[in-house]
Amino acid sequence: MKSPGSRSDFKKMRTLDPATKSVQTKHRSRFGYSQDWWRESEYSAGVSRSYWSSTRHPSLCLLYVLPLLILYEAGIRILGGNQYDSLRAGIDSWVHHGMVLLGLSNTWIPPLALITGMGIWLQKEKEVPVWRAEPLAGMTLESLSLAVCLIGLSKLVDLGLNQLEHSQVPLQLAQVADAPSSGARYLAFLGAGIYEEAVFRLALIPLLFAVSRFLLLPGFLASTLAITGSSLLFSVAHHIGVPGESFTWYAFVFRWIAGVYFSWVFVARGFGIAVGTHVAYDCLVGCLSIPA
Question: Is the residue at 177 inside a domain?
Answer without folding.
Answer: yes
